[in-house]
Amino acid sequence: MLKQVVTMLKQVVTMLKQVVTMLKQVVTMLKQVVTMLKQVHVKQVVTMLKQVVTMLKQVVTMLKQVVTMLKQVVTMLKQVVTMLKQVVTMLKQVVTMLKQVVTMLKQVVTMLKQVVTMLKQVVTMLKQVVTMLKQVVTMLKQVVTMLKQVVTMLKQVVTMLKQVVTM
User: Fold this and answer.
1) What contacts 58, CB < 8 A, 6 or more positions away?
2) Mind listing the pLDDT tens digit of every residue in the chain (167 residues)?
3) Residue 112 CA: distances (Å) to CA of 10, 87, 106, 115, 157
4) Whose CA is closest to 32, among 18, 17, 52?
5) What is the pTM of this model?
6) What are the residue boundaries of the structural domains of the chain, listed by start?
7) Is 94 exposed, middle or buried, given 0-12, 13-18 or 19+ CB atoms closer than 10 A?
8) C-alpha dist (Å) from residue 31 to 2, 11, 41, 48
């Protein structure tokens, strides 16, 4: 859209240059008219005045075109302003959303830190459980050893009881 505006403004400048050139020609012709009037060449003066009128009509037509083009440029610029306002609004929304994302990410980081802390506690507890289980295994080994001794002693008692019964 801005390219179109620039192109149209260049056309306006070109047309205004043409208008200036034509006005210079009109001034030159009017000077000639004045000179001829001084010399009393009425037909030539009338002819030149007709040419001047024709050129002035062309200037008016070109100026009307310039005005029309400038109106189009203004309309296009208004559209550009509207679009830019929309872009600003959208950018504000993006910034707001990004702020929300940052806030959420901070919350996630906080939660992850809590999870890490909890996992460290779980690891510590698991180490304690392993230590306790090792103690239990050691105690169970002792119980097994004691039970073996009890069995051995019971066997001895049974043997002794058999001897007593056979006596």
Assistant:
1) 22
2) 778 878 888 888 888 888 888 888 888 888 887 887 777 777 787 888 898 899 889 989 988 998 998 898 888 889 889 999 999 999 999 999 999 999 999 999 999 999 999 999 999 999 999 999 999 999 999 999 999 999 999 999 999 998 988 87
3) 62, 37, 10, 5, 65
4) 52
5) 0.52
6) 2-166
7) exposed
8) 43, 30, 14, 10
